[in-house]
């Protein structure tokens, strides 16, 4: 055998042994982790899971290992809670302990650990409490937001009419509608569908959804130190995120210039006023950076989820025309064709209400949920799920699959 080949094989064997030893120490040093398939050196269980269809893979593993099991992706360890009972036990019975976010490279890339989605502890509590209160004050979940939604819906219908019944891909305009509702609350304005700034924002949001949900980002999360220096779509995602933040920061600066504390216009104005109230507190969570990241989170969470639900809803109605016919009958009977729907119509339209909820159940929009981490060592059933004490330690997170 060639000496260089022998050396290479020896190094590979040593690395594999070291990896297995470290894996054993991490897994059993502080308690018993849930069972799971034996991880391979370096790649872990990545070759045993279909990254393009993770829910189906988790379904098969649940049948073999039960509703609580462990996977490993590279150097990232994942505890999976599968099914209603396990998820309820974690999020309801032990909600405070399971509320953290893990120090995942993807979260760091997208949010820098601040805002709403990826923050932890007191930061998360303060920003979340303020955001919920402010959004409710501007009508979220109330009848006062009806007029904004009705106006956006009217514009959406006009855009669809322009297609004159010809085949089209409605993805873009279905994304514009919910995005404009969010814009009306955050920026106090809706954009025209041909507005170049708005088109640019939608392009960035759509591109990043595709990139972040791709299998490549799972590889990035597992081997960030290596993948960071390799070509790939993650570089495009980094660039898009910075462009989105710059777009929001430009709006924030304009709000700072025109702010009237006696008449707050939108979410940004309220946040700026909160910043002024806490400017003497050096540890305040209310900063420009937190504002920009929080607004970015609101866009990401509200735009894609709603537009995808609308798109899948249309596809399902095309597949089941008999359901569409019953919907039309109820809509024509209760609302008619001379006005738009309103909240008062909901209780009079049980069939439409049931179809909407069934669409949301059927499409399983975010099957794995966002990853969580425990805020302290947690005894869950007969297992110990340890808190991540440093980024260099194996990440212990859990994915929730509503199935």
TrEMBL record:
InterPro entries: Cyt_P450 (IPR001128), Cyt_P450_E_grp-I (IPR002401), Cyt_P450_sf (IPR036396), Cytochrome_P450_fam2 (IPR050182)
Keywords, comma-separated and alphabetical: Endoplasmic reticulum, Heme, Iron, Membrane, Metal-binding, Microsome, Monooxygenase, Oxidoreductase, Transmembrane, Transmembrane helix
Pfam families (alphabetical): p450 (PF00067)
Cofactor: heme
GO cellular component labels: endoplasmic reticulum membrane
TM stretches of this protein: 6-24
Biological processes annotated in GO: organic acid metabolic process; xenobiotic metabolic process
Gene Ontology MF term list: heme binding; iron ion binding; oxidoreductase activity, acting on paired donors, with incorporation or reduction of molecular oxygen, reduced flavin or flavoprotein as one donor, and incorporation of one atom of oxygen
Localization terms from the record: Endoplasmic reticulum membrane; Microsome membrane
Membrane topology: Peripheral membrane protein
EC number: 1.14.14.1
Highest rank taxon of the organism: Eukaryota
Family according to the record: Belongs to the cytochrome P450 family.
Name listed for the protein in its UniProt record: unspecific monooxygenase
Organism of derivation: Phascolarctos cinereus (Koala)
Annotated gene: LOC110204149
């Amino acid at each position: 055998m060639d000496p260089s080949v022998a050396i290479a094989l020896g190094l590979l064997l040593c690395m594999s042994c070291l990896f297995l030893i470290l894996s054993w120490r991490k897994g059993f040093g502080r308690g018993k982790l849930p069972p799971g398939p034996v991880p391979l050196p370096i790649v872990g269980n990545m070759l045993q899971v279909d990254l393009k269809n993770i829910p189906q893979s988790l379904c098969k593993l649940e049948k073999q290992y039960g509703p609580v099991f462990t996977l490993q992706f590279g150097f990232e360890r994942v505890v999976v809670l599968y099914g209603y009972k396990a998820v309820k036990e974690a999020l309801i019975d032990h909600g405070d302990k399971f509320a953290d976010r893990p120090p995942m490279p993807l979260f760091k890339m997208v949010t820098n650990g601040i805002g709403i989605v990826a923050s932890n502890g007191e930061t998360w509590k303060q920003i979340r409490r303020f955001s919920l209160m402010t959004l409710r004050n501007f009508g979220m979940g109330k009848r006062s937001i009806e007029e904004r939604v009705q106006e956006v819906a009217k514009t959406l219908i006009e855009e669809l009419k322009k297609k004159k019944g010809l085949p089209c891909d409605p993805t873009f305009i279905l994304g514009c509608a919910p995005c404009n509702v969010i814009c009306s609350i955050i920026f106090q304005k809706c954009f025209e569908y041909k507005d170049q700034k708005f088109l640019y924002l939608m392009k960035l949001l759509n591109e990043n959804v595709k990139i972040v949900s791709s299998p490549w980002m799972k590889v990035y999360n597992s081997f960030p130190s290596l993948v960071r220096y390799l070509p790939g779509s993650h570089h495009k995602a980094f660039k898009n995120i910075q462009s989105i933040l710059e777009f929001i920061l430009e709006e924030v600066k304009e709000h700072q210039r025109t702010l009237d504390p006696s008449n707050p216009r939108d979410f940004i104005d309220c946040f700026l006023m909160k910043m002024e109230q806490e400017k003497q507190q050096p540890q305040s969570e209310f900063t420009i950076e937190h504002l920009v990241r929080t607004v970015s989170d609101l866009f990401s969470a509200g735009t894609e989820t709603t537009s995808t639900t609308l798109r899948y809803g249309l596809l399902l109605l095309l597949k089941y025309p008999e359901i569409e016919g019953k919907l039309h009958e109820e809509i024509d009977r209760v609302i008619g064709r001379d006005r738009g729907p309103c909240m008062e119509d909901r209780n009079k339209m049980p069939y439409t209400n049931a179809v909407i909820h069934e669409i949301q159940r059927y499409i399983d929009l975010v099957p794995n949920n966002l990853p969580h981490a425990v805020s302290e060592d947690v005894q869950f059933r007969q297992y110990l799920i340890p808190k991540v004490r440093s980024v260099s330690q194996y990440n212990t997170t859990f994915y929730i699959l509503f199935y």
